[in-house]
Design goal:
binds pyridoxal-5'-phosphate, four-stranded parallel beta sheet, 324 residues, alpha/beta, six-stranded mixed beta sheet
Length: 324
């Protein structure tokens, strides 16, 4: 098993529950379990909390007193980073794409309540603006720690290597038993990379299927494989992943990132009305909508349980109210 000697700061309420979804399973004709990473506990939860436990550990080791990261205006990652910074007593600067929208709602409201400073990147690449902010802060004596888009550095990915070990312990599968097929929303790729590497290290033999919310499959597969390999090197464990090991479906991108359509609207209602579970319009509703569509088309082989990994994001439903 994994001997983790990386620094880590506890932020989440872990392990998150696994639940049966009997009424949804009836509706879709297949047993479906859910892993509740929408309930990781920090400022309305989500998957970034697991990455941030390791990222904050690294930031503390670097002697940082400031976190800088970037994302879309309704970024869940930015909101969770702002909360983690507050918990650790660090300042936080968020570089958000574009310009300030009218009104503030959803994650953007929470960013401000959590005390983060916001910098709008306009038309420029957020990475470039982050580097500029970091240089300016450093010149005035701050010690910044930069967290990439989605928290997906090798360090962040380790949070999901640990999540796979958590899942393995919860399922207590006999070695002969078939592990579930895991479905999740995949964007910057760190969550999928960690689960891919982690389930292998845990001996789980699960299938990890990413539903892309942002990128064409080839691009995301390359990103996930590269991140899994960087994390394996960081942990000094064997097992390299190639792009062929990474399962990505990009057929549900619809009108693009952050633009919900009928697929997302139907998935949100179905989960809410059969199980009282809220999905978010950008990530989990697209992944759940993809899963529903694949089941209806008969594209998922029978015989293995399905596990939907809820990655959070629910504060965004308020910001998307008029599109739902
Ligand atoms: C960030 C995010 C994802 C995607 O995770 P990645 O590690 O970036 O692929 C999925 N769901 C939600 C709700 C997110 O905020």
């Amino acid at each position: 098993m994994l001997h983790l000697d990386l620094p880590r700061i506890e932020l989440g309420l872990l392990p998150t529950p696994i639940q049966e979804l009997p009424r949804l399973s009836d509706a879709l004709g297949r047993r479906i379990l859910i892993k509740r990473d929408d309930q990781t506990g920090l400022a309305l939860g989500g998957n970034k909390v697991r990455k941030l436990e390791l990222l904050l550990g690294a930031a503390r080791d670097h002697g940082a007193n400031l976190l800088i990261t970037c994302g879309a205006p309704q970024s869940n990652h930015c909101r969770q980073t702002a909360a983690a910074a507050a918990r650790a007593g660090l300042r936080c600067v968020l570089v958000l794409q574009g310009g300030p929208p009218q009104g503030r709602n959803g994650n953007l409201l929470l960013d401000e309540l959590l005390g983060a400073s916001l910098v709008w990147s306009g038309e420029r690449p957020p990475d470039e603006v982050m580097a500029e902010v970091a240089a300016r802060e450093q010149a005035s004596g701050a010690r910044p720690y930069l967290i990439p888009y989605g928290g997906s550095s090798a360090v962040g990915v380790v949070g999901y290597v640990l999540a796979a070990a958590e899942l393995a312990a919860q399922l207590e599968l006999a070695a002969s038993e078939a592990a579930p097929v895991i479905f999740l929303a995949s964007s910057s790729g760190g969550t999928q990379a960690g689960l891919l590497l982690g389930q292998r290290l845990a001996g789980l033999r699960a299938e990890v299927r990413g539903i892309s919310v942002l990128s064409p499959a080839a691009e995301l597969r390359a990103r996930v494989a590269a991140l899994a390999n960087e994390a394996a090197r960081l942990l000094r464990v064997d097992g390299s992943s190639s792009e062929e090991d990474v399962l990505v479906d990009d057929r549900f991108l619809g009108a693009g990132y952050g633009i919900p359509g009928e697929l997302e609207r139907e998935a949100i209602r179905l989960f809410a009305r059969t199980e009282g579970i809220l999905l978010d319009p950008v990530y989990t509703a697209r992944a759940a909508g993809g899963l529903i569509a694949l089941l209806r088309r008969g594209e998922i082989a029978k015989g293995r349980d399905l596990l939907f990994w809820h990655t959070g994001g629910t504060p965004a439903v308020f910001a998307y109210a008029d599109q739902l």
